Amino acid sequence: MHFKEFKLDEKILRAIEQLGYTEPTEVQQKVIPVVLEKQDVLVKSKTGSGKTASFATPLCELVDWEENKPQALVLTPTRELAVQVQEDITNIGRYKRIKGLALYGKSPFARQKLALKQKTHVIVGTPGRVLDHIEKGTLDVSKMEYLVIDEADEMLNMGFLEQVESIIKLLPKARTTMLFSATLSDQIKKLSTKYMKQAVSIEIDASEENAPDIEHVKYVVVEELKLSLLEKLTIVENPDSCIIFCRTKERVEQLVDVLDEKGYTADKIHGGMMQEDRFEVMDDFRKGEFRYLIATDVAARGIDIDDITHVIHYDVPLEEESYVHRTGRTGRAGRSGKSIMLATPFEDKFVRGIESFIGFEISTASEPTKEEIVKSRAAFDVKMQEQPEAKKSKGEQLNANITKLYFNGGKKKKIRAVDFVGTIAKIEGITADDIGIITIQDTVSYVEILNGKGSLVLKNMRNTTVKGKLLKVHIANK
Ligand code: AMP
């Protein structure tokens, strides 16, 4: 099957092609046609199945570009996921100039408020901050036609149910609602019957065929020997890219310091860090700037990073589901991966709980022998000295041909997006299709130029007026 069969706008198809998606995944095959018909859907599907694009694609297709008020709202449990989903939507909607905005807590409200004054098609956010904006009147929901509740089970686990319900009650009744969840508990089903209309139920079963190729092993070890076992395991496993999960942020801090000292390229992420730092660490890890990410469960959900070869549970997760989410960071997009759990002898009960949750016994391995370590040492030492291979970002090809231009005039000079489109599309060799997202602020504006035509537009705009005014123009910093 091909994406063309969904009868999508050529602009959406072009973006999908440039993202390298040749064939829709199972969840996409099932969800896209239903949402395009504006029917509600209740989808049981895990991250890694391509579920983001299964709602992002029809959303980008359905939203009306002309409408200034936001038309779609996506709720996610974490800030990282909000940013990621927003990026996926921006990538898919690039040629249709779909403007997405991520709203999440611990980031300046005022800046978000300003951004909300711009034309925005899709809002992606965490429930608390979204509700805050609606209640303060900074987010107008009167034109919201589409609602996506992503990772609904996690949203409930994190205690967001009340906020999610409050948001739903404030949205127009005539809308299409999509609910995605890895598990369909009674509570989720109740939520769907309460707020959805004749939802089409779609289950992507985790059959062998769909199951990622992940090898699971566990080691039984006393607390005092965990660190030395971890070292031995990293030597024999010699991972390219590895997440090590710990139970608390204190444990993360300790471990990252120790590993750092020992020469590992390691960094950390946990909920006690500033949001900017969290994003930066995830970005650097995504780019392959270091090999070992030490994390609490904040990094377990939804985070989509290719080529993570190993997940190590340095501490047994206390919740059975966490094991699945942590492990799901590896073996993505058809690749294989390995999950290694270190359990102390007293944690037998938790381990059995996890095994019954995942439906199989995790085989117990024995500590690497001296010979194995000696044999692996040289290759490990070489890799420790090497910079990890840079990972390509998903939207790279899509973004390669885009130049963002800065102009020193905006709302105060009464300049609107149409003024830029009108002026730039008149340049010889440029059409409206070469113009991407336009952002007009009070005193400055940003215009994306697509298809590698940035320098041509830049050259011309140096001596072309916009609404009778000659503006300063240069390539935007970011
Ligand atoms: P998700 O389940 O949304 O977290 O997506 C998992 C990964 O699959 C992401 O890296 C997507 O970019 C990628 N992906 C989504 N749809 C497709 C597709 N049709 N073909 C190839 N990769 C895809």
TrEMBL record:
Say if the entry is tagged with keyword rRNA-binding. Answer: no
Q: Which residue intervals define the domain DEAD-box RNA helicase Q in the entry? A: 1-29
Q: What class of enzyme is it?
A: hydrolase
Q: Which UniProt keywords apply?
A: ATP-binding, Cytoplasm, Helicase, Hydrolase, Nucleotide-binding, Ribosome biogenesis, RNA-binding
Motif Q motif, per the record, lies over 1-29
EC number of this enzyme: 3.6.4.13
Among Gene3D superfamilies, the record links this protein to: 3.30.70.330, P-loop containing nucleotide triphosphate hydrolases (3.40.50.300)
Q: Where is this region: Involved in 23S rRNA binding?
A: 403-478
Which BP terms in the Gene Ontology apply to this protein? ribosomal large subunit assembly
Q: One GO MF term, please?
A: ATP hydrolysis activity
Enumerate the Pfam families for this protein: DbpA, DEAD, Helicase_C
Instruction: Enumerate the spans annotated as Helicase C-terminal domain.
Output: 228-373
Show the GO cellular component annotation of the record.
Answer: cytosol
* Taxonomic superkingdom: Bacteria
Please give the catalytic activity noted in the UniProt record: ATP + H2O = ADP + phosphate + H(+)
**Where is this protein found?**
Cytoplasm
**What is the annotated role of this protein in its UniProt record?**
DEAD-box RNA helicase involved in the assembly of the 50S ribosomal subunit. Has an RNA-dependent ATPase activity, which is specific for 23S rRNA, and a 3' to 5' RNA helicase activity that uses the energy of ATP hydrolysis to destabilize and unwind short rRNA duplexes.
Its family remark reads:
Belongs to the DEAD box helicase family. DbpA subfamily.
Protein's name in the database = ATP-dependent RNA helicase DbpA
State the species of origin: Psychrobacillus psychrotolerans
Gene encoding the protein: dbpA
